[in-house]
Structure formats: structure tokens, C-alpha cells
Design brief:
By secondary structure, this protein is mainly alpha-helical. The protein has 10 helices and 4 strands, in the order H-E-E-H-H-H-H-H-H-H-E-E-H-H. The radius of gyration is 21 Å and the shape is globular.
Length: about 230
């Protein structure tokens, strides 16, 4: 009789109870979708603007940077979520920095080994992921208070939202600034013969901020609830 009264152990995966909440429930899917639009790290939270300014002259480095940030954010969120009950509150920022720095060093060495040309282009910007406010912000605001699976999804979602803007800005800057994409000539020579002139304006740093501003304007024109009221 005692065994009959004992509650059955529910199976878990990544410390998430499968019977209590599906892995890809509506709330979990929102962790992936919201940063792509309503809660985008760059256009809504206005974080990570420096990357949009520095590495969006060409599309290839922007793609590699986006993948690198995604790997760092996903791994860091998981590790901090696993350790969240063991980290003393007064040293939590130091622990977060150590975890992020370790992940960045790992990504840096992988790029150096397998994509050396891009590694040289990105140079110090890979190392600056350590101080990226998006990464540290999600560790502090989410991973410290949520389970491993949710933290993983949150890291992937916010990195994807960040990467989407980065790649979109790089797409237009390289295309309109040099007539190329991924180093391949896209705008034909006939366009130049017909009067198209590329004066390199899109390759200047201020155009990165102007392009991001255009994305912000389009997003708020489409989604009026993002407009702040006085």
C-alpha cells in the first residue's frame, strides 16, 4: 500500500519536467521569437550597437560574429543556469565574466584554427564579446533565475536577434558600398556605365548607425506598441 501512495517520478530532460511543460511550449517558443522582433537586443533594447558599427562593412565577418556570439551566449547561459544556486551573490558578476571569457577564448581558438582569414578580419572584436552587454545582460537578467533549457533557448534567441540585425546591416552596407556580397561582385559593370556611382558612403562608420536607425524606424512603424509614450 505504501508503494501505491508514492508519487511516480516524472522523466526530466535538461532539468525540465516533460509532463509539466513541453520543451517547445508557447512560452519557450517565445524565448526564441521575441528577440527577433518585439524584444530585439539592438533595435528595442539598444544594446550591442558597437558591433553594428564596427564589423558590418562586409557580410562574411558579420555572419561569423553572429555565430560566435550565439555559441558564447548559449554555452554561458547554460553554465550559469547550472551554477546559479552555487554562486555567492557578491561575486556573481566575476563568475559570469570568467565563464564568458572562457567561452570566448574557446571560440577564438576555433576560429583561429579553422577560419584564419575571418579571424584576422575580426581581430580584437571576438575578444570584445566578453564585454558585450547583451551577453552579460542575459546572464544577469535570465540565466541566474531560470532552468537550463529556458536559459539555453534565451541565449539562442537573443543571439539570433542580434545576429539578424548585424547581418542585415552588413548586407546593405557591402552591397551598396562596394557592389559586392561575400566578396563576390553583385552589381554588374553595366550599372556603373549607366550612371551608378559608388562613392563608398555606405562603408563609412556613421552609415552603420543610420542603417540601424532605419531598421528601428521600420520596426516601430510596423509595430506601434514599441513607440514610447511621453
Amino acid at each position: 500500500m505504501a508503494k501505491e501512495n508514492q508519487p511516480t517520478q516524472k522523466p526530466t530532460l535538461f532539468f525540465v519536467n516533460k509532463e509539466k511543460e513541453p520543451l517547445f511550449s508557447k512560452k519557450n517558443r517565445a524565448l526564441l521569437s521575441d528577440p527577433m522582433d518585439d524584444n530585439n537586443p539592438i533595435t528595442v533594447q539598444v544594446l550591442g550597437i558597437c558591433s553594428a558599427l564596427a564589423i558590418t562593412v562586409q557580410l562574411k565577418p558579420a555572419i561569423v560574429m553572429s555565430i560566435s556570439v550565439m555559441a558564447v551566449m548559449a554555452a554561458s547561459n547554460v553554465i550559469i543556469s547550472l551554477l546559479r544556486n552555487l554562486i555567492p551573490n557578491r561575486i556573481r558578476i566575476i563568475v559570469q565574466l570568467v565563464v564568458v571569457a572562457a567561452m570566448v577564448v574557446l571560440v577564438d581558438q576555433v576560429l583561429k584554427a579553422f577560419a584564419y582569414d575571418v579571424y584576422k578580419e575580426l581581430s580584437i572584436f571576438i575578444g570584445l564579446i566578453i564585454t558585450n552587454c547583451i551577453v552579460m545582460g542575459r546572464l544577469e537578467a535570465f540565466a541566474l533565475g531560470n532552468g537550463v533549457w529556458k536559459s539555453f533557448l534565451d541565449g539562442i534567441g537573443n543571439a539570433a536577434g542580434y545576429g539578424f540585425i548585424l547581418i542585415a546591416v552588413a548586407f546593405f552596407r557591402e552591397l551598396l558600398g562596394s557592389g559586392k556580397l561575400m566578396g563576390i561582385q553583385v552589381i554588374p559593370d553595366v550599372a556603373y556605365a549607366m550612371g551608378y556611382e559608388n562613392n563608398g558612403l555606405m562603408l563609412l562608420s556613421p552609415m552603420a548607425l543610420i542603417t540601424v536607425g532605419i531598421f528601428i524606424w521600420i520596426q516601430r512603424a510596423r509595430n506601434r506598441k514599441l513607440i514610447e509614450k511621453n
